[in-house]
Amino acid sequence: MKTKMSGCASVPKQSVTAICTTGWQKPWGVTVAVCTHNGAGRVSETLVRLAAQQVPPRMEWEVLVIDNASTDDAVNQAKRAWPLSLADRFRVVSESQLGLTHARCRALADARFEIVSFVDDDNWVCADWVRVVAEIMAHRPRVGACGGMVEAQCEVQPPWWFERYQEFYAIGPQHHQEGDITWERGYLWGAGLTVRYSAWAHLTCLGFRFLLMDRRGTRLHSGGDAEICLALRLAGWTIWYDPRLYMRHFVPASRLRWSYLKQVVRGFGVASPSHKAYYAVRENKENGLHVWLRGNWQSQLAACLLKLFQQAVRLLIMPPVREGNPAVLELESLLGTTMELMRQRRAYDESFWRVRDMFGGVVAQPVLSHELPRPRNEEPLLLRQQ
């Protein structure tokens, strides 16, 4: 029997143990997946940084570029940027379905190695990114996803409000210290998100399907990165933050506008209804009525419309300061949530309870460490299998 995943190859349902014993694990190593859509002007610098990685000589790793329905010269630019001396560590695959989630699913399917690290085509990673990723995942076999510190590389001087709202750009530290953030923060940004393939296989065996499709071309919807983290933690995996995973995120002038930030925040609002299902699974035993209300489309829409009205009234009575005003962003988020709830209608209840049914019996039951794929070499759990 097969279960379909939105934008992903279908996989047969099997037990967690079967994932780790019948070929679901991939060979030990790191695949750096660079998803690009019309990134001809960005991807070269990203690949130059990846080609300069300081990696132990016997360690298995590769760079996999996913061409996501590009209509520009992104693929040729990528091939030209990569050095011939590392040709055996470089591949390009195509994903014709437009959307970052589709591209990430393609990367997980086509990656050669167990650890898949997602680097956007405007991310410039530190020189030891691959080595640190492998170290984290090798020494902490319960970690299903990890991420790090992101610093802005702005094309022009950013506006005064940028630092205040940099998290909407996936900029800054993701936690105050290194460690397990599974039940404190609970999610990581997509820029630099690293996923263990066995953990992904576990999700697919549970019947996981993305509710969110993330960014599609110029549509600034988001939340797929948080969704996979929320799903992983419900399946028992750990989410880990390590600031040694440092990257710079190039921010062009066109994204440093208030109008752009409002679009981004509205996109986060669109993601909110889908995320609620994952948060509600853990709340089930704490407050059954509250969870039922979260899973009821009418109650969610009514609550959102009330908040939207209240926020609009606040803005009307406030001084006419718009740029940098957090109340404006709150209104945008509520607009996004309201629009998404209107779009989902009956599908909201179905999706909510499907997530509850999928994860209700597996919360806080992590896969045992001896069931997880680990490198056989002891030198120091980073080198290729002999």
* CATH class category of the largest domain: Alpha Beta
Whole-number count of domains: 2
CATH topology of the largest domain: Spore Coat Polysaccharide Biosynthesis Protein SpsA, Chain A
Main β-sheet description: 9 strands, mixed
Helix content: 25-40%
- Strand elements, count: 11
Termini separation (Å)? 35 Å
Shape: globular
Order of helices and strands: EEHEHEHEHEEHEEEHHEHHHHH
Task: Name its key features.
386 residues, alpha/beta, Spore Coat Polysaccharide Biosynthesis Protein SpsA, Chain A, 2 domains, nine-stranded mixed β-sheet, two-stranded antiparallel ribbon, 40% helix, disordered N terminus
Describe this structure in words.
The protein has helices spanning 16-21, 43-51, 74-81, 100-110, 129-139, 197-206, 224-234, 258-283, 288-294, 297-317, 326-344, 346-359, and strands at residues 2-5, 8-12, 30-36, 61-68, 90-95, 115-118, 123-125, 143-154, 179-180, 194-196, 238-251. It has 2 domains: 2-256, Spore Coat Polysaccharide Biosynthesis Protein SpsA, Chain A; 275-359. It has 12 helices and 11 strands. The longest helix is centred in the C-terminal third of the chain and has 26 residues, at 258-283. A hairpin with a 2-residue loop joins strand 1 and strand 2. With 386 residues, it is an alpha/beta fold. The chain is globular and about 65 Å long.
